[in-house]
Amino acid sequence: MAALACAAVPARASDAAVVLAYPRLGPGRSTATVTIEQFEAHIKELKSGPYTVLPLGDIVRAMREGKPLPDRSVALTFDSGLRSIYRDAWPRLKAAGLPFTVFAPTDRIAAGNADYMSWDELRQMAQAGVGIGSQGAGDLRLATTPLDRAEADIQRSMDKLRAELGAAWTQRPLLFAYPYGEWTRVAAHALERFGFAAAFGQHSGVAHASLGMFALPRFALSQSYGDPDRFRIAVNALPLPLRELVPGDPIVRDNPPSLGFTVDPVVGRLDQLSCFASEQGRAIVEVLGEVRVEVRMPGAFSPGRARVNCTMPGPDGRWRWLGVPFFVPEP
Best-predicted range by mean pLDDT among 102-111, 121-130, 264-273? Predict the structure, then answer.
C-alpha cells in the first residue's frame, strides 16, 4: 500500500517516527476499545495535518539504514488479530489511503472465535498490501516464558504465517510486537537470531534507533486516551535521543529499579525534564553535568508490568517523550 504524505509543504528530515498501537475498535465502554467515532477523528487529523503516514516496514528500514524520515512520520499498527481490524479499521483506512500493519497471534486466527479474523480475511489484507507482522503463536508471555518454549512459539508462528500468506509474509523486513508489551533482553536477542528486523512494545514514546531496534515504543491508544487533544500530542511528539540506558533489561531484579540515561546534547537543557512512575506519580530527576539523567522512584513497583514516562517541552509547542518499560516478577 503506497504511503500518503499529508503535509502541504515539504517537511524537515527526521530520524524518528511515532508508532500508534490500536486495540479493539467498535462500540462499548471498555477502556481497551477505541470507538469508531474516535478512530474516524484520528484519520481526519492524519489526513488534514502536517503528517506523513508510512508503512511500518519503511520506517524500520530507514532507521536501520540511517536514512532520514519526513518530520512527523507516523505508522499505524493493530494487535491481537481481532475481526474489528478487518471489519471496521481496514475499510476506513483503505478509503483514506493510509497504510497500516497488523501483528497477528497465529493461534487465534481461525480459532473458531467470532471475535478474531479468519486466515482468508488476513490473506485478503496481506494481498492488498497491508503489512503483517508476528505476535507469536499462542498466549506468549516473554517476560516469564522459558527461552526454549518462547523460541518454539515464535518458530510456530513464523511457519504458520509463511504457509498461509506466502510471499506477503516472507518479504522483508520481518516485524514483531511483544504480546502484552512484555520482553526481555534474551527474548530480543532470540528475535534477532530468527531474522526479525525490529520489535515493538506497548510503552509510550517515539521510535528512534538510539533505543535499539528490539525495544521500540508505541503509543497505545484506548478510549480514555483517544480524545483528539491527546491524539495530537502523541502524533506530534519528538524523541528523547539517548545512550547508555540503565537498566538494559526490563526485568526488575532490585525493586525499585535504578533508571539512568545519557541524553543527546542536541536536546538542550534538561531542567524541564519530568518523569512519572506507574501508580506512583512524579519521580525524582537528577541531572548530572549537562546530559546524564538519573531517575529515582518514589517506591517499589507492584508485581507485573510498570513503566516510567519522561517528557519535556520541545520546539514548536511539541513534547519530547521517552517511555521505559519494566516487569516485576511475582515473588
Answer: 121-130
Asked: is 4-235 a CATH 3.20.20.370 domain? The reply is: yes
Q: What angle do CA 111, 123, 137 make, to 5 degrees?
A: 40
Q: How many Å apart are CA 213 and CA 16, to the nearest integer?
A: 12
State what percent of residues in the chain have pLDDT above 90. 81
Across the chain, mean pLDDT equals 91
Among residues 153, 198, 182, the alpha carbon closest in space to that of 252 is found at 182
Burial 32-57 (b: 16+ CB within 10 A, else e): ebbeeebbeebbebbeeeebbbbbbb
Per-residue cell: 296: 529515582
Q: Where are the domains of the chain?
A: 4-235, 242-328
Which CATH architecture fits 242-328?
A: Sandwich (2.60)
